[in-house]
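Sequence in, structure out.
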Amino acid sequence: MPKETLDAVVGQPERKFRKPRIYRWIFSAVVGVFLFITSHYDFSNNQTDVASVEDNGLDGHHRNPLFELEKETSDFLDELDVPEDNEYVERSRGYDDVCMQPIARNPKREAFIGNVSTLDIIASDSFRNDSLERFKQVLNVPSVSYDDMGPVDEDPRWKIFSVLEEKLRSLFPTTFGHIKFERVAGHGFLFTWEGSDSSLKPIVFMAHQDVVPVAESSLNLWLYPPFNATYHDGNVYARGAVDDKSSLVAIFETFELLAKSNWTPKRTVIASIGFDEEISGFYSAKYLADRLYSRYGPNGVELILDEGGFMLDFFGKRYVAVSVSEKGYVDVELSLKTAGGHSSVPPARTNIELMSELILEQGQFHPNLIKESPFFASLQCFAKYSPKMHPKLRHLIKKGDVHRLSRVLSRSAMFRYFFTTSKAVDVIKGGVKANALPEQTVALVNHRIAHGNSIADVKKFYKRTLVTFAKHHHLILDLFNETLHEPKKPLGYLSASMIKPLEPAPISPYGPDAKAFHTLGAAIKHTFGNESIVVPTLMPANTDTRHYWNVSENIFRWTPVNRDMGRKLGNAHTVNEYIPYDGHMDSINFFHELIRIYDEA
């Protein structure tokens, strides 16, 4: 590969640009749509609930991004030598086929329990209060998955999921008794509500039972005990409230209501519920997906819906960001071995210093926004429908100037990673004693691979940087099981290996003829209002859907909560996790309507 091409792919230490103020508010506004998605990253630990900031004196970061819009200026864009474009929505000539919106669809067949419709039941105070108690009981079960969990039949920590199953059975007896239930891989749930028309492909709802751990050191920061769910001021506080027991319980509530009613499906409806999503799903989601694949074959499922982003009001519009793909994933383990000795006579560079030099000088991947990326589709939607977007930014998007957009948008440290392969050194270990030279240092580097890059590009990145480093320091280099450098008098041994490599996910169809995407969008508009703009986008983190790629071409990631979650994000993965209870009720209503709408699609 020519040097120029390789540079474009893997990058070098990047130039510093003058940071324009205008983009700080643009990024702040846009990124709110994706805040739930990015909560899977470690930086979510910096986000705490507003109340916890006030009560505990923490320095939170919860200013509403929209409040910043009027405070910031547009110096950089004003100086940018591009035309202004003030055309949006119906005035956007030649842009009609971009981000076409589905039409809200009302289901015709109603469901009744006795003479009361299930929709009226959901809207009643009695159901709302009873559902709150059921939700709290599920949240109170500490169904934690840990990174070091062993096999299900060997690690006793999995037993808590049997407790959770018994709780769910007691709360939703009709679901377990009326709908076909299979236990998969120990604690996975597969509910199959057979439809009357076998020619219709089934739809699958996904959720997960597990939650992330709660650090003992953080307990004093919680307003309420994390496994004693508490309703306060319209919110439910507990570990798992937003990730992902709200969706879990909403699916059960929907099944329970419809199973009790006179309504029966034409199209088969399936709930596939894992128990180890927080540790990548290899103990449950993989086996659930395999079961569905063996039963329905390749692309045998019409639609899969899993957790993802929320709604947010910004740029003067309400957007619903539905992820149609995910970034890829790989961990790279770097290991450096050198001779030890007494620290009183150190070499020019100790083992740890050499590893540090390698990490610091390796550089980052270049931003690489491509037109095929779902994130570019998001930008097109924003340009079409947002009256408050800067006209020069709108011009760049509508002209498809991805080169300049990459340079401009990448100036946001968070925003850039929707189109840039990331590199994060998350673990480093080395040395055992203050007066002994370290003999080995190990670093674990995480990458989320953007569309336009691949596992092969990550390998090229390491080949370029590590070969040069090994030659300079006279090290044997074993790169992904291939010896690439072997000096006559080696001073050490450097190796790199890949863990859990995963290419970027296939992109589910979302264009004008994408029936599954537009049926989902029709249900969103029916449930949450026709003014909502349904936007295809990219998920920079990963979900259990990674195991379902061969089950359906229509895989979508979206959490049906019609509330402004962008400001505080629900504190997923950190202290004071919560969900607005109205948002939880939104989810029940949405699943109820989506099942009925898809049954008539």
